[in-house]
Specification:
By secondary structure, the chain is an alpha+beta fold. Helices cover about 30% and strands about 35% of the residues. This is UPF0033 protein YrkI.
């Protein structure tokens, strides 16, 4: 999946990954994809809830050696 924007929020604690994602997605066009990398364990539930509440679609997410990667399509 080729993202339009990538955010590196590794090493940041809640709520920083969400705040960085919110700021980046605001400048994107509807339908574009944002890729987020985070290490905060709470990011999985936070990103899922934030995307749903904001009308965005969480396309996929993975975890590899403590790094969570999310692909979010702007609604």
């Amino acid at each position: 999946m080729e993202p339009n924007t990538t955010i590196d929020a590794k090493g940041l604690a809640c709520p920083q990954p969400i705040l960085k994602t919110k700021k980046a997605i605001k400048d994107m066009e509807s339908g574009e994809v944002l890729e987020l990398h985070a290490t905060d364990k709470g990011a999985q539930s936070d990103v899922t809830a934030w995307a749903k509440a904001g009308g965005h679609e969480l396309l996929d997410h993975t975890e590899d050696n403590g790094v969570y990667t999310f692909w979010i399509q702007k609604g």
